[in-house]
DNA sequence: AGGGATCCATGATTGGATCCCA
DNA sequence: TGGGATCCAATCATGGATCCCT
């Protein structure tokens, strides 16, 4: 299949999202000449990448939102049988050995500034092929959310900047947590500890807690 | 031991509570010439009744608060290792076959109108004898709590009044739930179903969810 | 290695069942 | 039976571990 060209306007993106709303993953996979995996154990990112293709996101880009011309990031939200987010949402990797940035200019905030959220049915008992796409929600980070995330981010970055990254566990952060993001727990990266020594640590990522994404859904469907 | 006379004023009650704050159940049991059970499996109400004796509550009374002269009810709150309520709090039995009452006059609200809450250490790994009594909290039902409970109570009573009590399960109610309150699940009482037929149903009780009591503790220690 | 994420063992919660006393 | 409650099996939630693609 030919890759679909990027949408030129937010409205065009929303129109495309409207066209896939309510359709099953089997239907969408067919339009992309793809087969549907029986389960996601060995295809964890499959749904997200399928949706990217359907909407014309520029795949594999780095240091750019999924729709660079629009400054819009795409995030799928897997829903449990109850219609609530089933998983936390990965945002980006945690910078190590990087020069300090401010909240206002950090990559995390840029990614979350404008997001097209796409809820996807994901109850364990529902076969992957039968799962349907919900209706998309285009958001801009609200003042309140900005403050909430800024606070968590600062606490995390303070620990990282002082070489105490290994003290961070997933319990930290009200809305934004830091968790491993690696091939496995033996995949190590170098960084600097509190005494200035080079140590190896697990690569981490920033994740939005389900309470945060649940709130986005709730506000929209209110 | 002589039973202690009822406190004559709220201040006297609070003074007595102050005297037992920080003391272990072993110490308190000793003052009442009681032995401490190794565990509460066969003595589930033991702690509550011990505290009643220590404070001079008129035991075994019906249709009256624990301290009738003061209009004050006594409730112990078992705390887990984290200092949060470990269990829901039983309030009173659910009326069956009773004439309808209003929220303003119902027995539940009268009991909760003024309560002396007594937190008690109750982490599973802490031997009963070593558990200590916390500092007492005397509360009046706030406007907000009154509204919260009224709403739950009305929903419950509506189902009961229309003979649909067997549809009520512990998931109902934001702050106030209804659960079995019986010797065992074979203990049945008669009531009337939606079609006016006499049926047998489990006796039930009203229970406050731990979120409700946790909030009381939080407000006090704020 | 960064971007797309879910898996799943283990801990926390819960609510139906149960226990003693007067 | 009403009042004093806790027990504990089953379910839910969580967060450390892991997987594919480019």
What do these coordinates show?
Two copies of one chain form a homodimer. Chain A is of the alpha+beta class. Helices cover about 30% and strands about 20% of the residues of chain A. The first copy, chain A, has helices at about 10-20, 25-30, 45-55, 105-115, 145-160, 210-220, and strands spanning about 75-80, 90-95, 115-120, 135-140, 175-180, 190, 200, 205-210. In chain A, strands 1-3-4 form a three-stranded mixed beta sheet, with helices on both faces. A three-stranded antiparallel beta sheet of chain A has the order 2-8-5. In chain A, β6 (about 190) and β7 (about 200) form a beta hairpin. In chain A, α2 (about 25-30) crosses α3. Chain A is globular, with a radius of gyration of 18 Å. In chain A, about 25% of the residues are buried. Chain B binds a DNA duplex (22 and 22 nucleotides) through α3, β2 and β5.
Radius of gyration of chain A: 18 Å
- SSE ordering of chain A: HHHEEHEEHEEEEH
Count helical runs of chain A: 6
Low-confidence stretches of chain A: none
- Main-sheet strand order of chain A equals 1-3-4
Q: What's the quaternary structure here?
A: homodimer
Shape by Cα distribution of chain A: globular
| Strand proportion of chain A | 15-25%
Which percent range fits the helix content of chain A? 25-40%
Q: Biggest sheet of chain A, in brief?
A: 3 strands, mixed
* Class by alpha and beta content of chain A: alpha+beta
N- to C-terminal distance of chain A = 39 Å
Overall pLDDT of chain A, averaged? 92
The number of distinct β-strands of chain A equals: 8
């Amino acid at each position: 299949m030919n890759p679909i060209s990027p949408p030129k306007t937010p409205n065009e993106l929303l129109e495309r999202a409207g066209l896939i709303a309510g359709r099953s993953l089997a239907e969408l996979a067919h339009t992309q000449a793809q087969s549907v995996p029986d389960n996601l154990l060995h295809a964890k990112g499959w749904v997200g990448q399928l949706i990217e293709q359907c909407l014309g996101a520029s795949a594999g880009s780095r240091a750019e939102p999924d729709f660079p011309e629009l400054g819009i990031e795409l995030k799928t939200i897997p829903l449990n049988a109850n219609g609530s987010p089933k998983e936390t949402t990965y945002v980006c990797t945690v910078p190590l050995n990087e020069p300090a940035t401010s909240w206002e200019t950090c990559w995390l905030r840029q990614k979350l500034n404008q997001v097209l959220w796409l809820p996807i049915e994901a109850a364990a008992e529902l076969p992957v092929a039968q799962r349907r796409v919900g209706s998309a929600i285009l958001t801009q980070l609200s003042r309140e959310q900005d403050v909430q995330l800024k606070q968590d981010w600062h606490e995390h970055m303070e620990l990282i900047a002082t070489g105490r990254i290994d003290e961070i566990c997933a319990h930290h952060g009200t809305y934004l947590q830091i968790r491993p993001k690696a091939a496995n727990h033996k995949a190590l990266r170098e960084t600097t500890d509190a005494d200035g020594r080079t140590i190896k640590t697990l690569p981490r990522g920033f994740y939005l807690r389900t309470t945060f994404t649940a709130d986005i859904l709730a506000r929209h469907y209110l």
